[in-house]
Design a protein that fits this description.
The protein contains 10 helices and 13 strands. It is an alpha+beta fold. The protein folds into 2 domains: 155 residues; 166 residues, Gcn5-related N-acetyltransferase (GNAT) (Aminopeptidase), CATH 3.40.630. Strands 1, 2, 3, 4, 5, 6, 7, 12 and 13 form a 9-stranded mixed beta sheet that branches. The two termini are 23 Å apart.
Length: 328
């Protein structure tokens, strides 16, 4: 028997099964119910979370923003469905990660049925599924009206015993550049570890906001919570035990650059980067990230979307993903 929990994180308490469900499924920190609640309260649009239960057990989760096609507003989300536009399936603040997942490995036809139940009543006039992979396309419920490629998601496997193995896999010129840049930063203190131990929320926020200001806007900006990232979200995120950071400080203890990593037993996600205008920090952070992943025994690291050519030069595989619009 199929049952459905439809949750508004602003008003509905965390389900008793949620924490174990997310942990057992190996999801990243952005699926914490506390973070979803903060994202919902600070969004321009209503956030909806659907959990499909099959035979009394959670089987699928779908997170969506009920975004209308309207002018940008500073108002908070209002109750109910948007009158215009389509629900966009995504998880807030993680554009490289899709907004739905399953428990276990259900067959493709069962996945389609679970998603159809999860989005019951949403098809007015349709649903936009963001970050769908090749395997996901046949499982999207409804009639697919439009499919468009998005920026691929880059990920690099880390099978080496140490970082020299990664260097050896790169081109000679890239390897020489990275080593030269590392030498040029030798006067800075660079640390990798739990984010909450390395900098304050205010320090992280200042650098993240600086970086976001460079990329604000875009065609899909109306479908996501309004930038910049809300401070309460950043503060709660770095308090999560599975969020790591790479930080650079100068001799005056100024935080010059910081990257945040959403840890995972196999595939951590390089979530956000921010820095003052100091040369080579951004490129060096990838070397530090991969060095950390190798030492921690990770299968690989997800580098996210954007800057595909650069990430490919660092040995990353570019995984295709799509935006799919479907109607009843």
């Amino acid at each position: 028997m199929i049952e459905l929990d439809v949750l508004d994180p602003r008003r509905d308490p965390e389900p008793p099964y949620w924490r174990a469900l997310v942990a057992d499924a190996g999801r990243h920190a952005v699926w914490s119910y506390d973070l979803l609640r903060i994202a919902a309260w600070t969004s321009r649009h209503q956030l909806r979370l659907s959990v499909v239960h099959d035979s009394g057990r959670p089987a699928a989760v779908v997170c969506a923003v009920l975004a209308g096609m309207r002018a940008v507003s500073r108002r908070y989300a209002s109750p109910g469905m948007a009158r215009l536009g389509v629900p966009a399936v995504l998880v807030p603040s993680a554009s490289a990660e899709r907004g739905w997942w399953f428990v276990g490995e259900p067959a493709p036809e069962h996945r389609r049925d679970l998603l159809r139940h999860a989005t019951r009543g949403w098809f007015r006039p349709g649903v936009l599924w963001l970050r769908a992979g090749e395997r996901d396309r046949p499982t999207i419920p409804g009639a697919v009206r439009l499919t468009r490629p998005l920026n691929p998601v880059a990920r690099v496997a880390t099978p080496w015993r140490d970082v020299d193995g990664w260097y050896a896999a790169l081109s000679q010129s890239r390897r020489a550049d990275l080593r030269r840049q590392r030498r040029g930063l030798r006067d800075l203190e660079c640390l990798t570890g739990p984010a909450r131990d390395l900098a304050s929320a205010a320090e992280f926020a200042a650098l993240l906001w600086r970086n976001e200001n460079k990329y604000r806007g875009g065609l899909l900006s109306g479908l996501a919570p309004s930038p910049p990232l809300p401070f309460p979200y950043i503060e709660a995120l770095i308090g999560q035990p599975d969020v790591q950071a790479i930080t650079y400080r100068d001799g005056r203890d100024r935080l010059l650059g910081a990257g945040l990593i959403l840890d995972h037993p196999e595939w951590p996600l390089y979530w956000r980067w921010g820095a003052l205008p100091v040369r080579h920090l951004y490129f060096d952070s990838y070397g530090r990230l991969i060095e950390w992943a190798i030492a921690a025994g990770k299968t690989g690291v997800i580098l996210g979307k954007g800057k595909s050519d650069l990430k490919a030069a660092l040995g990353a595989e570019l995984v295709p993903s799509y935006a799919i619009a479907a109607t009843p």
